[in-house]
Design brief:
This is Phage protein. 75% of the residues lie in helices and 0% in strands.
Length: 56
Amino acid sequence: MFGYISVKDQLIKERQKSAALKVENDRNAANIDYIAMVFDVELENEKEEVLENVTE
């Protein structure tokens, strides 16, 4: 009926998924930066905006 997956195995699988998603996210961010550089587009930096809003 249903296969039992231990908590330890679930944790390992989820950590692997998380690591793969982080790699994909980093690659996508690098591609966006490269495209912006090629087409001379200025991208907004979310981290700078957050810091500006906190100091105001």
